Amino acid sequence: MGLPEPPALGASALPAGTYAGRTVFVTGGGTGLGRAIALEFARLGANLVVASRKEEHLAAARETLAETGAKVRTVSCDIREPEQITAAFDAAVESFGPPDVLINNAAANFPVPAEEMSPNAWRTVVDITLNGTYFCAREFARRHLAAGTPGSIVNIGASYAWTGGPGFAHSAAAKAGVKNMVETLAVEWGPYGIQVNGLVPGLFPHEDMTADIKGNLAGTHDKDPCQPAMRVGRLRELGWAATFLASPYARFVSGHTLVVDGANWQRRGLVNPPVVTVRQQMGKGPFVLP
Ligand SMILES: CCCCCCCCCCC/C=C/C(=O)SCCNC(=O)CCNC(=O)[C@H](O)C(C)(C)COP(=O)(O)OP(=O)(O)OC[C@H]1O[C@@H](n2cnc3c(N)ncnc32)[C@H](O)[C@@H]1OP(=O)(O)O
Ligand SMILES: NC(=O)C1=CN([C@@H]2O[C@H](COP(=O)(O)OP(=O)(O)OC[C@H]3O[C@@H](n4cnc5c(N)ncnc54)[C@H](OP(=O)(O)O)[C@@H]3O)[C@@H](O)[C@H]2O)C=CC1
User: Fold this and answer.
1) Is the model's pTM score more than 0.95?
2) Could you tell me what percent of the chain has a pLDDT over 90?
3) Which SUPFAM superfamilies does this UniProt record tie to the protein (predicted)?
């Protein structure tokens, strides 16, 4: 049986118009989970700013969000580059005024055994996932602190921030940093009216997943018997959690990271199954020095 299915797409726990007149800035909002999150804010009346590198992804955001009637601005931006982030926020202000909410969703990841990872591969994932998240939060907060206005930040994380992530050493370390940053920044910026929270998706397969990750998920299906929920996450479930965390109904929630994964990260057996190395899971032979 597993956990019941959620209400249908289009339903909402929050009152209609909760975000009317508000602007939400979503990094990586043209694909997968970022687009699903942006969609839920749009349904609740927000203006959306979507920032990422690729025009095809920005076009996808415009197309999806247009269906809701929301006003949308897309901006080309690599979050590794602080000056591009400043320019993206300037563009947001030009269209709608200062963003009220920042969804730090953009990230990078690919499975690779730690011993095979190049220094540049490590740096790239940490630079996008950890540094880029901080640079965006910094830009958002500086503007609010200078103006004396409140705001809300939601950083998208991953449960291997707590558990470690064999096969994803770079991303797991970066996400641990992201979770820790939530706790620090919530305290530093709370006195100025800025909430900072984390939101951790469990397994939410989607069409935009990179080939590497899709390939490794080939055996996973909708009613996933490997998870306590006996199913994977529905994209709207993450969108609903994000709209709640950033809403007026969650004003006293700050410094918290909410896990939306049907308890998958808590799963343990009475007896451990045999260890299968990351190399075996990825179909690789023994490591040899190049
Ligand atoms: C093993 C079991 C698997 C189970 C599956 C479970 C899956 C659950 C995952 C749940 C958590 C998910 C977290 C996520 O973050 S999902 C988000 C993923 N989305 C993306 O990553 C989108 C953005 N990604 C990218 O743009 C690119 O993939 C990249 C991160 C590589 C950045 O692109 P950029 O153009 O800046 O970088 P380069 O192509 O120049 O590459 C930089 C270095 O990285 C090396 N590299 C790239 N890909 C791989 C790879 N697949 N394996 C090893 N190394 C890789 C590349 O060679 C460069 O290094 P060098 O210069 O040294 O060659
Ligand atoms: N899907 C899942 O099951 C899980 C996802 N997560 C987290 O959820 C979030 C979304 O993941 P998901 O939707 O699956 O992944 P996607 O690969 O679909 O999305 C990643 C997004 O990040 C953007 N991005 C990547 N690098 C940069 C950059 N340097 N500058 C700006 N934007 C960038 C990409 O856009 P562009 O290429 O246009 O730059 C893309 O839209 C991530 O934080 C991920 O770690 C966590 C656990 C599980």
Assistant:
1) yes
2) 93
3) NAD(P)-binding Rossmann-fold domains
pLDDT in the model for residue 79 = 99
Domain ranges in the chain? 23-281
Q: What dotted CATH number matches 23-281?
A: 3.40.50.720
Q: Which two tokens stand for residue 86?
A: 């400043």
Residue 130 CA, ligand 1 centroid: distance in Å: 14
Q: Assign 77 to helix, strand or coil.
A: coil
pLDDT of residue 219: 66
Mind listing the pLDDT tens digit for each residue in 147-195? 999 999 999 999 999 999 999 999 999 999 999 999 999 999 999 999 9
Residue having the nearest C-alpha atom to atom 28 of ligand 2: 78
| 3-class SS string, 175-187 | HHHHHHHHHHHHH
Alpha carbon of 171 to ligand 1 centroid (Å): 9
The SS3 assignment for 263 reads coil
Which residue, 23, 58, 75, is CA-closest to 44? Answer: 23
Q: 28 in the Ramachandran plot: left (φ > 0), alpha (ψ -120 to 50) or beta? A: left
Confirm whether 134 is a catalytic residue.
no
